[in-house]
# Entry
Amino acid sequence: MGRVVVLLRGINVGGHHKVPMARLRDLALSAGLTEPATYIQSGNLIADDPAGREPSVLAEELSGAIATEFGFEVPAVVLPGARLTEILEGCPWPDVEDPRFVHGIFYPAPLPEELRSAARALMTPDVLDAVAFDREVLWLHTPAGLSASRVAEPLTRLKLPDGRRGTARNLRSLREITARL
# Structure
């Protein structure tokens, strides 16, 4: 698979589920990844996968290693680096003034129509925010900022039919991660 991006959900947030980035890089090496690098403390790992594993297989392996090491479950979304670049190039709001006001919510599988419909249903006429979709990504633009959004929290709670949720990254972080590929 070559270069991969691993997005971990819900670590190092509010002092909960602490995973030191140095230890995450060590776990990546133990899982057979090479040249692991992390970006900020929120669970963004970039590495090479010489074994070329399927993203879902690698996600399970890394989630299992984290559970064994730290004693809690951490869902992971794994993307080939080329796919993340493609997703970023397809961002519906690339020219926003503040890239922290655009978020990609990444899911471990393509978004089914029922999830897309639930997201669109939150976009009532009085909501300033907007959503768009790209296969496994729900894009969210919050012109007044994430903290002012009435729909950001319900959107991040949307689940795939099997109960899995997505993990969000803002456009600024996604650009930084992609620059490290």
